[in-house]
Amino acid sequence: MDLQDVRKNAREQMKGYCRVCPICDGRACAGEVPGMGGLGTAASFKDNVMALAEYKFNMRLVHGVTEPDTSVQILGRTMKIPVLAAPIGGVSFNMGGQISEEAYVTGVLEGCQVHGTLGCTGDGVPPFISETGFSAITRLGGEGIPFIKPWEDKELFEKMDKAGASGASIIGMDIDAAGLITLKKMGRPVSPKPIAKLAEIIKRCPAGFLVKGIMTPDDAKRARDAGAAGIVISNHGGRVLDHTPGTARVLTDVAAAVKGDMAVLADGGVRTGTDVLKMLALGADAVMIGRPVSVAAVGGRKDGVVAYLDQVKEELIQAMVLTGTARADAVGKDILFRK
């Protein structure tokens, strides 16, 4: 499937919710939440993209790397590419509602499955957002990561049990959703979790637990100490707190605090295979991609996601060859240019 056609179709399907800009950097959609924009001035969204763009590569060609290995071992699995689809839900109020939640979720998960990696499913209000994700993961034999928002106990544990029943080997919490204004407007309380509560949640979880929304070394250590299998360094795509730094600015310090103890993933502003390689060089074991995968799924369902990930993989391989990087699980920071 041609990506230009996918993007053209998505632009029509998402009219009023996402402009499908040539460069997805948060400038045109500032303040558009609900929608696909960033909160307030969109400073956090914009800095995700700018922070990554500030890193440049050292191009090296006197080496023998011609067919780099893009696979990584993470969270007890082998991923053929170090890229997962980030958890995004709410097609009706974030993406225009021209396709169903089921069609969207299925497209994301099946597209990722073709590439030997995992898609994540979202949570929210109304309940069919999470239910659709659980059902789709069940149909695919557990191939997906269901994310649950930091609800109060009753709803949280009910959804966690359903997530476990889907067969998923990993369950996530986007703890950064504690600031989502869309949920506040709906009267549905979400909140931060102190370490004792997080430990209780993780102990009750029937699968490995992934905490998304970590932006500081101390929070990374708390998630580790609470028993999490991994973290996602993320500012929720700039949708919960204005004026946070781009994730690439904090990645190295956060990753160093827990490297070797747990899986370290990162998202925020990742658009291309070169962005993926930069994140790996800065300390991530793998990355998550949000908005571009959503655009691909709305514009082309499974085929759109496959086409987008095809492009990302090709760009990643090219960047690995041109920096002399043989393996995605052993990316040195020395591939990045320093003045």
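The record above closes out task 2.4. Task 2.5 opens with a second protein, given below.
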Amino acid sequence: MPRQTKTRSVFVCDSCGNESSKWEGRCSSCGEWNTLGEMKVSAKRSATGGWTGSTTAIATPLAEVSTESTPRMVFSSAEVNRVLGGGIVSGSLALVAGDPGIGKSTLLLKLASETGHGTKALYATGEESAAQIKMRSNRMNIQTDGLYVLPATNVDQVIEQAQSLKPSLVIIDSIQTMFDESVSSEPGSVAQIRECTRRLLEHAKSSNIPMILSGHVTKGGDIAGPRIMEHMVDVVLHMEGDPVSAWRLLRAMKNRFGSTNEVGVFEMTSSGLKEVEDPSAAFIAERGTESIGSVVIATLEGTRPLLAEVQALTSASMLPTPRRVSSGMDFNRMLLVCAVLGRRAGVNVGGQDIVVNVTGGLHVSEPASDLGVALTIASSARDVPLSPGLAAVGEVGLSGEVRSVPQLDRRIAEADRLGLNRIIVPARQWDKNAKSKSIEVVPASTIRQALQAALPRA
């Protein structure tokens, strides 16, 4: 018989997750008051090998480890498969987070309905009733016999149903509503989220069934709960988008089985989320002709080149300190571009309020968008329109130089595919002998040269 020890109690802080052997009025780690809750811990240990299913844990040479028993479940959504790295891996635990109403439950219900013929999927929800799930499925035109709905918040009931049904996929919506009876804290607390995640992770690994958790976010945009939850899961996906826009972006923040640079693009419609097959065309579809302070940038999301429209508006400031507002791009990079424009390109924006926006709810973080932002600010400041067929790509240095960007050829090809007739690129990177099909490539070494090429009438 394996040796067993008695059950003991620990006190876990609901704020930071710190453990204490005794109750204290104030957490010794974070300093919060009345946040320690009791949690019973069973120190029982068995001789089983954990997730391997063997009676004894044995070290195995890495060269002899086979991956044939861990296939991927491929969904019908090419965008989801792209972000996951080709589909969800069997036995993995994924976490999907996002703002309220962004479409997490809609996406997860769609994925749960895409199990293969003759297989089952379990959708456990602690936020909605079975009737509410049915109403959403009718709106999304979901018709399947393999989808089982479980309105429950007890993690033991969820695991029990998963063991009974043996589904090919388990959805938990959401992890903040689940609770473990052995933990005395309220559902949604740090201790409850950590313990429920651990229980579900163990079941996913031991049964080789993939699980997807839905997670809430805080006012600051962070995933609610202990940070250790993000370390425990295999995949962390984040759904984002402008609340007033129909576009939804699915990003991989962590992926043990693929790249974290991919992004999936969806459109929220009356019948659910719809894949956007050509995101570049959708992002620049509403761009006007001869627009002042507007240009197309060629950004890169993982392996996918994306075109997006960047707009800028400048106006004389009525405040002692002019305002700088950035939406869809890094605020510090916008300040860098403004400083370089004033110091190296002779564009006086010191007394101007400046607003920069990336349309469509897209968030651009790479420095390759610097040149496009500089052109839009200069266009607005000088009140001179930019050509509607113009695109720009390049990083702006503090000396006013236009620096190289990765995979320039793919960006140029994407701009050419969508009918743009001119693109400004870093001169040091462009081969004069290279053929660019129908698009005119204009190399620029400095930001002054780029402004002269884009704003000849200024």
